[in-house]
Amino acid sequence: MSERTVSQAIDFRRSIRVYDPAKKLDTTIVRKCLEQAVLAPNSSNMQLWEFYHVTSKSVIEDLVPLCFGQKAAKTAQQMVIVTVRKDLWKSRAKANLDHIQTLYPSKPKAEQSNREKMAKNYYGRLIPLIYNDLLAVFRYVSMLVMGLFRPIYREVRAKDMRVVAHKSAALAAQTFMLSMAAEGYDTCPMEGTDTWKVKKVLGLPMGAEINMIISCGIRKPEGLYGDRFRIPFEEVYKEI
């Protein structure tokens, strides 16, 4: 099957609740879709995510009751678990800084371009200030004061940065599902899950969080629960 266009993939993608056990997924294609997922836009290019591609039938069986026995889990050929790793911010900031160092040959600070200085300061100074939870109260109060005099970024509390990390992971999850749709593969993002116990199955540390559990397979006709319904576009579209 040839790959679909973006518009075709968006139209094809539906949340499928029942997959055909006779139709198998090619693991390499699912992996390719995950490779495309990591190209998704994300805040400050911090890439605070990990993707667990579950192909083991025994692990899927362990996950089914943690997804409350949903048919989308019971009949899944494979699963992808998108995790948020805000706890890895130091290593991800260093990776970005190391990359910047490769772009700009070492030179005295006076000879560095404004762009080079800005990039190095961003990952070397600003990111640690933003992501260090111990500084959350200081950040918040500082932004409140500065916001009295000029527009300022205000979502700087620890819980705000957690939301930022989850938004980035969700963008990657959607990119993955559209990539799967382009290949003719189906997915279902499952909201009803016991994320604490899923973390235990995966052996994740305390600082990791589950963003989304996505079942994967090829649809059966009964796996599509009716025609697509959306609120009329005119009600949600506001041109200003």
List the defining traits of the structure above.
240 residues; alpha+beta; NADH Oxidase; four-stranded antiparallel sheet; 10 helices; 11% strand; elongated
In summary, what is this structure?
This protein has 240 residues and is an alpha+beta fold. The chain has helices at 6-12, 27-37, 57-63, 71-74, 89-103, 114-131, 136-146, 158-182, 195-202, 233-236, and strands at 49-54, 78-84, 186-190, 209-217.
Protein model, in words:
46% of the residues lie in helices and 11% in strands. The protein is built from 10 helices and 4 strands; from the N terminus they run ααβααβααααβαβα. α2 packs across α8 (158-182). The model has no long low-confidence stretch (mean pLDDT 96). It is an alpha+beta fold. The longest helix has 25 residues, at 158-182. A 4-stranded antiparallel beta sheet has the order 1-2-4-3, with helices on both faces. It folds into 2 domains: 6-88 and 165-225, NADH Oxidase, CATH 3.40.109.10; 89-159, no CATH class.
- Estimate what percentage of residues fall within beta strands: 5-15%
How many structurally independent domains? 2
Shape: elongated
Fraction of residues in helix: 40-55%
Q: Summarize model confidence as the mean pLDDT.
A: 96
CATH architecture grouping of the largest domain: 3-Layer(aba) Sandwich
Radius of gyration: 21 Å
Q: Which topology of the largest domain does CATH recognise?
A: NADH Oxidase
Widest sheet: strand ordering:
1-2-4-3
For the termini, the CA-CA separation is: 42 Å
Instruction: Detail the poorly predicted runs.
Output: none
CATH superfamily of the largest domain: NADH Oxidase
How is the biggest beta sheet arranged?
Answer: 4 strands, antiparallel
SS field, number of helical segments: 10
Structural class based on helices, strands and sheet pairing: alpha+beta
